[in-house]
From TrEMBL:
Keyword check for Membrane: yes
Protein name: TonB-dependent receptor
Principal location: membrane
Keyword Membrane: yes
Keyword field: Cell outer membrane, Membrane, Receptor
Encoding gene, per UniProt annotation: fecA_6
Subcellular location per the Swiss-Prot or TrEMBL entry: Cell outer membrane
Originating organism: Gluconobacter sphaericus NBRC 12467
InterPro entries: Beta-barrel_TonB_sf, Plug_dom, Plug_dom_sf
Secretion signal span: none
Length: 730
């Protein structure tokens, strides 16, 4: 329906999906978050149009992306350090068969730990039954290019096994400032179906990603840059290095990420009406998010310990050492999700399962010296500076691990010939974190154990075969953000604590309710009224510590979320298939916010990342071999401070896609030419909030003291961008 943008749903909760047919109409160079950007309630921001920027962010119903759970092929798809998704690193778009978004809650049997605000589910296509493949080439604005190739084996002899392997390379210049981003990706999937017994599938992906970044802008800097020129070089990272002058050379802000993901899904029939699902997995990441810094050899610290530096082999500029400030992190995650499905009678469906996850990470934020030309010998966290006593000069060096034991049970009973379904369930998350801080200071070991039960209930009724109503009440939780909560981080210039670790934080906890109605018939309509109460809210924001870009979390207390979301579409009429969705959101803070100078009166203020209105209007057109689509998106202004004294302006965008299916030509079965325009009107706008602050202007606290203001920062959105793509199966 609606070209794959409105899939028929039956689950007793608000659910939206984008199918492979809709993905095939979008830009070939797009991230999964870009693909779902037009789904109901999705507030999407990006710094590029090619899925190459780590600053692709979404919020849903006022919940940030770090409050969503992510699964890919049945396994966790979130980076557990900060709960960021990095969905771009899991699977190429051509290999995705479906992306589903569940706002405000998650499926009870999915292995998600960060789903206090919803869940995003990616499913990878199965290998074809016949041998063949696909090739694709795309080029576009800012020297963008992408090459993709996939081979399907078909059934291999009489083994019953079929598999595919694919590889892609994507690269593009950033539109503002200097630098070129690139990404190499490999996917592999093997499938063995065991007849009536079940099926097994192995999915493996590898990703190598380098992102040349643009500097976040304050509102004043953005307005100044917009008036000065159309490339926003004012206030951005410097394009060239001048010794003793340049403090933000673009080469020293390139983000690096490598990852490997392995999922082994198995479904077996143990007996009649009794099925076993078991999915072991492995996930490995390396990342470094550096920045430029300058060190004074007369005031250097390793943790809180003052140290000396031998500068005889270093380049000194005005008596200081210029360096690359690293945030190198190595992560290993293993786990297994197992559940049993049992139907004791035809009208009853029981699920009982257990999810175990173990995650380990080593983090080091040392400094790599720069030469006279501003270049570092390593951009991967190596060749670090050590003090004369052998101590690492760093603000952070620690090891951390987490363990999750999650039990869940759910039972669905049907009545009235399956028209009425009542589901009740509960899951219990037991979260344990421990670590050691390897720098001098008051913190050596840290640990915490938290347990959180999460009950849920839902009722759905099929009024007719095309009409459904449902109501649900669910609870979801998210443990504290590990890297922003537990370890101490120190200033390398003063030895003072920049981030004070805590061992007694509480889980973020959401109680949500929905009332929904669906109709699929002469037209399609889906609407949901929602209410959610969030406690122990941690707002994730960008921060620069010792010169390096990192994420941090701000404890913001409670939040109340209320609103309505609706979407509708018509069946094709003379080739035209219109689609529209919209959301009204009223999200407020429940508590005042404590600062070092006093308590700010934030209770009742509109929450950050919560635009009041959003809407998407699209029309898909298909006539013979020709197809086209146009989408208009509106996002209302959204606050970037807890005091509501600064906001990111509202914006409107228009995207256009055109395509043509050519007839079969030699071995090319389905040649397709696509042309996509993003931000067709070339509107300059801010696309996302980078840094949230308590207040932008000096504000009087409840004790009468004045709390100094701090300025929020924003991501600059991409201008008009086009991509032309030619592809074909064979």
């Amino acid at each position: 329906m609606a070209g794959g943008f409105m899939k028929r749903q039956v689950a007793p909760e608000s659910t939206s999906s984008i199918t492979a047919a809709a993905i095939a109409r979008k830009s070939a160079i797009a991230s999964p978050l870009q693909l779902v950007s037009t789904l109901p309630g999705v507030n999407y921001g990006t710094q590029d149009a090619f899925g190459l920027s780590i600053r692709n962010t979404i919020s849903v119903r006022g919940f940030q992306q770090t409050q969503l759970g992510y699964t890919i092929e049945g396994v966790p798809g979130v980076d557990q350090a900060y709960y960021n998704p990095y969905t771009e690193s899991y699977a190429d778009n051509e290999n995705l068969s479906d992306i589903t978004l569940i706002p405000s809650t998650s499926r009870i049997n999915d292995p998600v730990q960060s789903s206090s605000g919803g869940e995003l589910i990616e499913t990878v296509r199965d290998p074809s039954e016949k041998a063949g493949g696909m090739i694709s080439y795309a080029a576009g604005s800012y020297r963008a290019q992408r090459v993709f190739g996939r081979l399907d084996s078909g059934y291999i002899g009489h083994s019953g096994i079929r598999l595919f392997g694919s590889a892609s390379y994507t690269a593009a210049d950033i539109f503002a400032g200097s630098g070129r981003s690139n990404k190499t990706h490999v996917d592999f999937k093997a499938l063995r179906e065991w007849g009536s017994i079940g099926r097994s599938s192995l999915f493996v992906s590898y990703d190598d990603w380098k992102n040349a970044r643009s500097n976040p802008y304050t509102l004043a800097a953005y307005e100044t840059a917009a008036k000065t020129n159309n490339n926003f070089s004012v206030g951005n990272y410097a394009s060239s290095y001048i010794t003793g002058v340049t403090t933000n050379y673009w080469k020293n802000y390139i983000y690096h990420r490598n990852s490997v993901l392995v999922s082994f899904q198995n479904e077996f029939s143990l007996a009649r009406h009794l099925n076993l699902h078991i999915t072991p997995y492995f996930h490995w990441n390396f990342s470094n998010s550096p920045g430029q810094t300058s060190l004074n050899p007369d005031s250097l610290y390793s943790g809180e310990q003052r140290v000396s530096l031998d500068t005889s082999n270093l380049t000194l500029v005005n008596g200081r050492v210029n360096g690359l400030a690293n945030t190198a992190q190595r992560e290993y995650e293993t786990g297994v999700n197992t559940y049993i499905q049992y139907d004791p009678i035809h009208s009853n469906h029981l699920i009982f399962g257990y999810w175990f996850d173990h995650w380990n990470m080593d983090a080091t934020s040392g400094v790599t010296p720069l030469d006279i030309n501003g270049n570092a010998s390593s951009y991967m966290g190596k060749d670090l500076l050590y003090a004369t006593n052998g101590s690492l000069i760093a603000g952070a060096k620690y090891q951390m691990s987490t363990m999750i034991n999650n039990f869940y049970v759910s039972d669905t009973q049907s009545f009235l010939d399956d028209k009425l379904k009542i589901t009740a369930g509960v899951k219990e998350m037991m979260f344990y974190v421990s670590g050691t801080n390897q720098l001098a200071g008051p913190q050596y070991h840290f640990s915490q154990a938290i347990t959180q039960p999460m009950p849920r209930v839902s009722v759905s009724y099929n009024i007719t075969k095309n009409m459904q109503v449902y109501i649900n009440g669910t609870t979801n939780a998210r443990p504290p953000v590990p890297l922003s909560t537990y370890p101490n981080i120190y200033s390398t210039a003063t030895g003072a604590i920049s981030q004070s670790g805590s061992n007694n934080s509480r889980m973020e906890y959401t109680i949500s309710e929905e009332l929904g109605f669906r109709y699929y018939g002469a037209f399609n309509f889906d609407a949901a009224f929602f209410n959610a109460n969030l406690t122990n809210h941690q707002v994730t924001t960008q921060a620069f510590i010792n010169g390096a870009s990192t994420n941090t979390a701000i404890a913001a207390g409670g939040q109340t979320v209320r609103g309505v979301t609706a979407e509708a579409s018509l069946h094709p009429f003379y080739g035209f298939a219109p689609y529209v969705n919209g959301q009204y959101l009223h999200s407020t803070m429940d508590n005042n916010f404590n600062t070092a100078s006093g308590t700010l009166p934030t209770a009742g203020k509109i929450a950050v990342f919560s635009p009041k209105f959003m809407a998407n209007v699209g029309v898909m057109y298909t006539k013979g071999p020709f197809f086209a689509n146009v989408t208009f998106k509106y996002v209302d202004s959204q606050y970037s401070t807890f005091m509501d004294d600064q906001s990111m302006p509202a914006y409107k965008t228009v995207d256009l896609g055109l395509g043509y299916h050519f007839p079969k030509w030699f071995v090319l079965h389905e040649p397709v030419l696509r042309l996509n325009f993003m931000n067709l009107t070339n509107k300059a706008y801010l696309g996302g909030i980078s840094t949230v602050t308590p207040n932008a202007r000096p504000t009087r606290a409840t004790n009468g003291q004045i709390v100094a203001g701090s300025t929020p920062a924003y991501f600059l959105a991409a201008p008009m961008t086009f991509v032309i793509n030619i592809s074909s199966s064979f």
